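quick one, 150 residues, struct below
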Amino acid sequence: MKYVRIRSYEMSEAQLRKTWSDTYCDRANPIYTFDGILVQFYSEMFDHAFYESANRKMKDKSVLSLNRCEKIHWIKDALQDPDSVLKKGWDTKTKSYDGNRRVAVVKGNYVVVINIISEAVARFITAYQIDDDENLNKLLSGPDYDRAKK
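---
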């Protein structure tokens, strides 16, 4: 996989949103995982994926993250990477692992989360880099996502 970074610091927010829309939201160019699941993306998902909270406890998503934006194309690469580590996602509301939430881990600490809707369709949730070793170890020690489950 390529895993190319863009120069997000040289782009306006409008240009970054257009890159998101052109890459992920164009129904004429669908994105599939390496194992054939169609992943749905919507323009409003930009805010959740590329904004960070100024205060983690408030979870306000108030700051555009150029670090996240520079990896905008990594989402597609991670979904299509057959060497990604697949884990079940954690649902903070139920405080349990969710077998329909699939987390792909690539490049050691970059994660892409999708929600499996049906055998052939999923919806993008978010993507980010984990910079805290404790959080990364928690994720990696969690249950594997059953690739055969689809």
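Residues 8-141 form one domain.
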